[in-house]
Amino acid sequence: MDPDQLAALASGLRLDSQSSPRTQPSPRAHGPPPRYHHGMSAEEVTRYLKEYAEWFEEDRKIPPEPATIVDRNQLIADQRQRRAQLERMAHESARVGGAGIPFYMTMVGFPKHSSSTALQNLRPITFSGMLVRRVHLGHYLLCRLVAPCTRMVAVQTVVEDTEGIAHDLSIYNFPSTSNCSLEHLDALFPPGTILAIREPTLKAPTQGSRPLLRVDSPTDIIFVARNSPLLQNVSWRTGVAVAGFRSLPATADAWQQRGNDHFKASQWFLAAFAYSHALVLDHNAIPLRLNRAEAYLRQRYYTGALYDAQQVLAEVGVSDTFADKALLRVAKARYGRQEYNLAQEAFVRYKNKHVGDSSVDSWLDRCRARLRESSTGIYDWPSLFRTAQRKIRLDAADFVGPVKVRRMKHRGGGRGVVTTKDVKTGELLIVTKPFASVYAPDLPTDQLIVTLDLISKTTRERTDSLLLSLIVDKLYGNPDLRNEVYHLYSGPDYPAPPETYPPSPSDPAAVDPLDPKVNINIAQLEAICTYNNFCPFRLDGPRVDQEAKPAGLYTFASMFNHSCAANATWYCIGDLMIIRAAESIPAGTEVTIPYCVEESYIDRQTILRKHMLDKCDCRLCEEDRQDGDERLRRRHQLKSRLDADAIMSASLAEVRALEKDIRATYGPTRGPVRPLSALALHVVAEKLRMSGNARDMRDSLQCDMQALECYGFVLIRDSARSPSGSKLPIAKDRIPTVTSFMEPADIMLRIACTYYMLREETNATNWLKATLWLTDVSVGGGKELFMLIHEETLVRMGIQSFAARVL
């Protein structure tokens, strides 16, 4: 999120006392970290992050030291007080409808350790043997919770080791805990829960004097069962049980009942968590494994569901009832994993065993539709568009057309995407679902989290923080997908990824939330998100979402490199990304897409820096740089005037003067592509049309046509048209990519409307056909999708019926 937007948003909120944490003096020589406040400008954020990075590096130079011993009872009392405060806030918010929104700041991009060593290869350690600022490689900490949990950005509680030494514990990125209730935390982390933390780190305090145990990766946490070999010959100095709290269930039946209760409440992760506890006590219980498989399906842990269901089918002598349930779960899990052929086979097997049962017919239809989409690239775009207007996340298959990933020598050996054959303008290259995505409706309404990125030195969107949590959650329940994410580029601090992509599929693996079988490196994942996240522009949604920009990780699409003047273009219908060729592309040529389409060079550079791109060498940026810094600054200043709401109330003379000033910021030897001039010319055209005078309306047509040329369109003037008037008024060899197709499409529709008002229906029809062509080569779908995408504009202009008749 832009810091100025953030300040405006936060200024309208009544922030509670946790919005501005008070940084207490630190005993360390170099002092406390610099302080962040929510009203910082973009320049202030950049300066703050630079200062924080410098402070962090100085802090890392301090040698490890023994931890301050903190009174156990005081730690517990303080944590209980924090919990009581949150409970009061929640109660008050529910009673009066909100009494202020808490504001939290979190930071990504700094070094942090995530273990990759199996627990059985680690040795135990206690707090007395640990040092602050040291990652205790080769060790694990056995500890148990002795206080209830709270949650701000992290889950926070107090743990003690076997010697009775206690410290605060902060757990980040744990599945299902993002914006969860306190009751949810109680079910996951009740006092008395025993944890084994792989290769733990005691962090130095940045506030107060207490060090804390910080866990960034949820896969570093193992929940230790009462019958675990880890507890042999282990005794707790403070007693067998944690005083003041109920003991955990001791039987499989009790855990199963708890799981059933969570399942009925649609708490899928908690249900699977409880069933996992039960399976520890009764490993061979088929109903438990089936129940967990179903909970995994609801949680979208398709790998875990598939593995559990296959285990049931492999049992000798399993009953037909259980086998049927397992087969259905296998089929649904295969479908969720986008293994549509295998899913169809499983559904057919079930259908053959239950002749006349129509319960899986719809699933078979869906499998056939997905197989057709993935093999042919033929989609029902209008239907998908309508569905996306009410449900963003679509049920559709991925498609990979005539493209492949390979190393690009001209990019220093980095990867890129090339065509495998000659490609025509508008040809479909890929359709892909996101690995994970977040939209404004997904964000919590009871808190505001701001993420600062030390890698890009920018403020991230509010959606980015939640996106990271969703990626972690998906990997946690689908460990075989790890390489799909970790084979993406993660910056110069990590080994270069493999030359090929996507990685070969992996076999389904067991998923146990008590003992994760995947290693999630959070620091690398944060870097992957910084370098690869998209802001997916939805054709079916608002042009600009004022609440929050969406965020998504599209893994295969991340292979496409950027160019402002790209040869391919991309859009989203719902969460489905569509990439098409914007021009004819010879076989073996690199395919590029625009990461941004800002008219201002300065705006583009700001956005590209968030993608860690220092410089774009496309022809548009080269021409901009040749215009010189002074012209670029002036153009950027004039753009703010063009964007202002007051522009439409300005006089014709004023907007003409503004257009002239913008035109003057482009050098005399510059090529025809001048995106900001296009915007300015269209504003002049709109102002001319407002007079209703026929002469002004004809002048507006010329302004809009010049605007299209400034976007890069080649116009075919009247003299070049056939007598029938059927030839399009624009050349069809390529579509410009320096802007979204929606902007020139709106201009073309306005031209068509103006001709219609002037009673020149032939010209109006030709411009409608030009808009249809532009829309179709950009996103497909023909006339039907065209009428849906532009419905609001056509209705507003009063030409919807005319367009439906002549197209």
TrEMBL record:
Pfam families attached to this UniProt entry: SET
Residue numbers spanned by region Disordered: 1-40
Alphabetized PROSITE patterns for the sequence: SET
Gene3D superfamilies: SET domain, Tetratricopeptide repeat domain
Ranges where the SET domain occurs: 401-596
Comp. bias regions, Low complexity: 17-28
The protein's name: SET domain-containing protein
Organism field: Trametes coccinea (strain BRFM310)
